[in-house]
Amino acid sequence: MSRTVLVSGASIAGPALAYWLRRHGMTPTVVERAPEPRPGGQTVDLRGAGRTVIERMGLEPAARDRVTHEEGLRFVDARGRVRASFAADALGGDGFVTELELLRGELADLLYQHTRHDAEYVFGDEITALTDTGEGVDVRFRNGSSRNFDLVVLADGLRSRTRDLVFADIARTRSFGLCTAYFTIPRSTSDGRWARWYNAPGRRVVLLRPDNQGTTRATLSFLTPRPGLERLNRPAQQEFLCRHYSGAGWETPRVLDEMVRAPDFYFESVGQMRLERWSRGRIAVVGDAAYCASPLSGMGTSLALVGAYVLAGELGRQHDHDDAFHAYETLMRPYVEQAQKVSWLAPRLAAPKTRAGIRLLTAAARVATRPGAGRIAARFTNPPSDAIDLPAYPPAGQGGARGACGGSSTPG
Ligand SMILES: Cc1cc2nc3c(=O)[nH]c(=O)nc-3n(C[C@H](O)[C@H](O)[C@H](O)COP(=O)(O)OP(=O)(O)OC[C@H]3O[C@@H](n4cnc5c(N)ncnc54)[C@H](O)[C@@H]3O)c2cc1C
What we know:
about 400 residues; alpha/beta; FAD/NAD(P)-binding domain; D-Amino Acid Oxidase, Chain A, domain 2; 6-stranded mixed β-sheet; 18 strands; globular; binds flavin-adenine dinucleotide
């Protein structure tokens, strides 16, 4: 009998976990609230240990086939003039734009396609109640059904409601007062192969990035003291954005115009998740649901991939799930804490309030592009993506995985 594990969430952490659970002889079921894999999002980068996990999954060639081929990042002014440029190979290929950038939706799809035949996927449903009986977990689903699993892992993102069923008393969200909207718009002749970053006064940023699908990924980021925007419905959020970005200049009118028609509008209040512990009994958390570091860290995808790898690896090699959860947390905590060291100042420096502040920012960016200054700039732009020694976990059948009670293993 192999351990049965229910995973909630099918974005990055969930399917990656399903893959490694299977490799270690367990039986994963993934439940995702959305009716199908969600396609949206900007580019995410694969670097450091996150990239190593993708390599160990044998997915690096497929990931390479899907890179966005962005040539770098340019700071532009209201007239579209380039104020500073960071080529993709600047800072050793590990700066603002890395060598292995792909769309979040493409990475999620890659992971889903790679696991869909080895894991049971249930779309359009979600967990509504969890009871840890000591022998297993009784799970109730929105569709009215109930099932029992040996273990449950929540991989359902920063705003996870299922996490609140188990960890509400020890979960703390750190907010940056920063909101972001992501969406896809038609490509225009001005878009090219470079990402373009535009600052408007009033702490407003517009970022346009080319993708590999003939369209452009737009991001609107702004600092606001107003709480709760992420809870508004989509038309209300878009109405707010139209008002807030009115008069921002550059290509903003085109972006706002297309936003209303965007098929994949996604709005979030940028935050981090601080959870005192990542498991209780037979229920654990992974990825953003456990330790979201925010897009400001550039580490969300790496943490999700590495967390999934370590958690499944420890479950594979430890007889007792308590020991496995403990080892997972011991290994991952320092890596997560480093990634979460994002200064409250970071979004304020990147989105100045005044024109003078914007001039200062672009002047600093220009200095950072100079030879020699690159190493200093890298200290600020390069997150500690390698700061973990990834154990090698033998797959099931090679002395690694155990069954439900630590018994015989099933080859993955
Ligand atoms: C649509 C989308 C777009 C994104 N765009 C960007 C981006 O542009 N830039 C960036 O840095 N990060 C983005 N992210 C976040 C990024 O994917 C994560 O920071 C990181 O990759 C870690 O992934 P995760 O799998 O832990 O969490 P997430 O990627 O947040 O995935 C959580 C998954 O759980 C599902 N879910 C939520 N609640 C439930 C529930 N109750 N039951 C079952 N399933 C549930 C969600 O639909 C989602 O598929 C985006 C996430 C999503 C879902």
